[in-house]
Amino acid sequence: MRFLGINAIFHDPAAALVVDGEVIAAAEEERFSRRKHGKRPVPFSAWELPELAAAWCLEQAGLRPEDLDGVAYSYDPELVVPGGPGQDGHWEDLRTAYARRAPTFLATALPGLDAAQVRFVPHHIAHAASAGLAAPHRESAVLVCDGRGEAVSHLAGHYRDGELTVLASQALPHSLGLMYEDLTQHLGFLRSSDEYKVMALASYGEPRFLREMRDLIYATGDGGFRVERIDWSVYAKALGKGEKWTADHADLAASVQIRLEEVLLDLARWLHERTGDRCLTMAGGVALNCVANTRLFAEGPFEEVWVQPAAGDSGTALGGALHLAQAGGDPVRPMPGADLGRSWTDEELGAWLDVARVPYERPADLAATVAAELAADRVIAWFQGRAEYGPRALGRRSLLAHPGNPRNTERLNDVKGREQFRPIAPMVLAERASMIFGRGPVPSPHMLFVHDVRPEWRDRIPAVVHVDGTARIQTVERGRDPLLARLLEEFEARTRLPVVVNTSLNTAGRPMADDPRDALECFGSAPVDVLVLGPYVVRRGAVFAG
């Protein structure tokens, strides 16, 4: 059977396609529209659909809208409590009205679709399915934490043979995700977008306000939690755009970050006591907090923690489609990886370069050629294979650099136009990871955990070591990604360093590059030395010579 999943209600609109229980395609609308996060999470935008992503998913499988057996919309307006807590003031009824009309909107956006084929999947059920059904486990506990769904902000349960049992949920207004969004806004960042900046800033502070946070944010012992009203200005003044943060702001971020970790540990322990599962699967925006994920892995009761690579709202498109497939009796299979987006053939990529009229070459040994450029401390724009689903660059749409030059952290942050307190990440062969990195899980292919950098390596790869001595690593499997594996080997042969810097191929405020034009535009507008587009190499000096 053929099921399309749609996320549209809040932010990060996305589409995903599951055919006969197999994940065929998934992509965020921002990759097509070039609007960061697709849209802002306000009730007025709830009507906007991932039309381009949905059309591409169908095209990828050679399907028409009328071929679908169902469309999952990852929000159920019937679960909304009118005038309930945690809603968008006087405008929540507008969001609900748009959601109720989603079947008609979708039938208009996808001509040929029968509106009766659209089914509402509760938001947190879709999140849970994106974890429990997509993970490589038939049995697992599942923990979902985000800002909000229809009336709750959290779900705890477990999967057995594809069936979800919900054990607890937390009613609004109490929300760990909304609490973290409020802090993000107070610190001068964009809410529902820049929460990862708060996580990075926390490493520069001391948890001076942790005692107060423990009184305000706490688990209740029944699988839920409470978040009391917090006046952030008591601890640090609100920052406007462009204002510089102080020690008070970093200390507040550190205090909230640690308290979030502690509450998640309490929730995980409660869940483990009731399920006895060895594996915890996670989704929801809070599951993108890789510092908290590592603490859950290191100190929590579960032997294994698996996090959906698209853990935010975009992942509910995949979860909704998987949920319908499971309910329809299809044998649902784990997602094959995060590389579920668009790709181009070598011939198509060459045609793009011809149209752009840039000089390029096709080296006999691409890995060796690029490794030599990296060893010479050049920044590489790397465009290979299918684009990633989710917010992490995983060696498909990446900027690569030398980890041994301590200036490269500042250099890449300048290239991308972002804050200098932001860390950059390393990629490493899976079999080499434990030699260099500790504490976090290995393998770690999706950059969803932080790992301690072993002391003897910190001075050797300073560009990827955060101020707290950690790094958010991506491990590379030879069988899964042979070209990246060979690149790492060739780089190590030249530098004796088995690590390469990997950060996303984009500049600040822009979505990650997705198609060849995006990569060429980024290469042309940012101080990147070399563009690798599939098998082709474009050198900045050759393009801009004379």
UniProtKB/TrEMBL annotation:
<dbReference type="InterPro" id="IPR003696">
    <property type="entry name" value="Carbtransf_dom"/>
</dbReference>
<feature type="domain" description="Carbamoyltransferase">
    <location>
        <begin position="114"/>
        <end position="322"/>
    </location>
</feature>
<dbReference type="Pfam" id="PF02543">
    <property type="entry name" value="Carbam_trans_N"/>
</dbReference>
<feature type="domain" description="Carbamoyltransferase C-terminal">
    <location>
        <begin position="371"/>
        <end position="540"/>
    </location>
</feature>
<dbReference type="InterPro" id="IPR031730">
    <property type="entry name" value="Carbam_trans_C"/>
</dbReference>
<dbReference type="InterPro" id="IPR017945">
    <property type="entry name" value="DHBP_synth_RibB-like_a/b_dom"/>
</dbReference>
<dbReference type="InterPro" id="IPR051338">
    <property type="entry name" value="NodU/CmcH_Carbamoyltrnsfr"/>
</dbReference>
<dbReference type="InterPro" id="IPR038152">
    <property type="entry name" value="Carbam_trans_C_sf"/>
</dbReference>
<protein>
    <submittedName>
        <fullName>Carbamoyltransferase</fullName>
    </submittedName>
</protein>
<feature type="domain" description="Carbamoyltransferase">
    <location>
        <begin position="3"/>
        <end position="71"/>
    </location>
</feature>
<dbReference type="InterPro" id="IPR043129">
    <property type="entry name" value="ATPase_NBD"/>
</dbReference>
<dbReference type="Pfam" id="PF16861">
    <property type="entry name" value="Carbam_trans_C"/>
</dbReference>
<comment type="similarity">
    <text>Belongs to the NodU/CmcH family.</text>
</comment>
